[in-house]
Structure of peptidylprolyl isomerase:
Amino acid sequence: MDRRLFLAAAAAAAAATSAHAQEAAPAAQPAAPPQPAPKPPVRVAVETPLGRIVIALHTKEAPITTANFLRYVDQKRYDGATFFRASRAPGAPEYGLIQGGVQGDPKRVLPPIAHEPTTKTGLRHVSGAVSIARNAPGTATSDFFILIGDAPGLDANPEAAGDNQGFAAFGTVVEGMDVAQKILALPTPGKAINPVMKGQIIDPPLKIISARRVP
């Protein structure tokens, strides 16, 4: 007989022999089965001559942007691309962003993707965030940037005038922020096609040796 049923039967028999006995308590319910462990995040290692940067992707929050990034990774389109931009904060050059990608190379670039604003994903542009570069919403392709320092102004802001959609954050650096800081400190004498990037173009640009999924 099951041990729990035996104990319940014994308790009922004891109650029957005593006029003052209390009714037996119900048998305890079996414990719920343990929940499966959450899946680890998808991670990508970007190898450069200055070291490795490992990015954890927020695939659940930003499915479109992470899937796009992984297409470039899995098809090895980032291999041989570069980090070409280092934008340093005025008066605080240890903070800013670095940008890399294929820069519209027609042999490497894939079609643009739909925009995923931070108001939809819940992600934020904090230090270590990885986000996708764009012009107008819906024009993002390969180029991504990494923040060294918080930049809340890059989040979507529905109350702002004009283009208020911000940028689409999609990952977080989990290893190699020291490498990102080294890239940020590289000299930037290069000529900028976009006036916004004047004084921010790394020359020579830093090669991306490879970008691969890692455990």
User: Anything to note?
Assistant: Strands lie at 43-48, 51-57, 82-89, 92-101, 129-132, 144-148, 168-175, 201-207, 210-214. Residues 99 and 145 are 4 Å apart (CA to CA). The chain has four helices and nine strands.
